[in-house]
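re the bet — no i am not wrong, look at it urself. input seq straight from the record:
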Amino acid sequence: MFELIELLTQVNARILRALSPLVKSSDISVTELIILWKINKNGPCKITDLSLKTGVPASTLTSLFDRLETKDFLTRIHDKKDRRCILIQGTPKLKDMIVSLVEKADGELTTLLDTLPPEFLKHFLEDLQTLQKHLIKETDN
């Protein structure tokens, strides 16, 4: 089973390496992109919640948010349920950047994987989704 971890890690590294020029051209780090992706996908969130989801310490996220707020990707708002709590939310500029990056990444991945049979990719994605659901079920108990 360790082979699974090794293979997934290697495939992930190769895909990230192929996509790294896209990230570099967007003037943000990979860590910043991961954080921005999660905020864009999940909506406003607390720093502590994002820290738990990403494994990035809250103190690191605070300085990262300062940089991303300066770049107009994020904004801080008060939680309507608890005014003492600050939420981090994406701006329209973040949404535009994510849409653009996803389109470019999709094009790069399509080119990269173009020689694989379409049925293989379809089944592979379905299998990965099944694995993810299983792991969520097993680890959330």
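see?? The longest strand covers residues 74-78. told u. also Residues 42 and 95 are 12 Å apart (CA to CA). so pay up
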